[in-house]
Amino acid sequence: MAVDVSTEAVIECPRAQVAAFAGDPTNAPRWYANIDRIEWQTEPPLRIGSRMEFVARFLGRQLVYTYEVVEYTPGERLVMRTAEGPFPMETTYTWADAGPGRTRMTLRNTGTPSGFGKLAAPIMKAAMRRANRADLAQLRTLLEA
User: Which terminus of the chain is less hemmed in, N or C, by CB atoms within 10 Å?
Assistant: First the structure.
């Protein structure tokens, strides 16, 4: 069973500001509750081919996985794919104007779990949706402060 979770939020900040902050993996632990840290495996700045190792907690387990940037249009779209790790995943951020000084950010996670993850896919999907909503709310809180 494939997992496809899309969540969005409107943030009361200009798109360039939201995209610069959310699109910088170094900031991920500040707004993703489940991400403990990231380590760049390639030199910043972010570009296609950049690789970062994420250390996260999900459903009570520690996960270590490497994302590789496969698409990047600054201020508009960022697509990262796991290059290695326990659950093949693609994460997409999109940013669009939602009125003067407002940004609609969409966070989408897609993937096809295997092994035990395949059986737990419905639970994972619900947990991801809850986590994504909370993470976007935290991002909104940080940026609107």
Answer: C
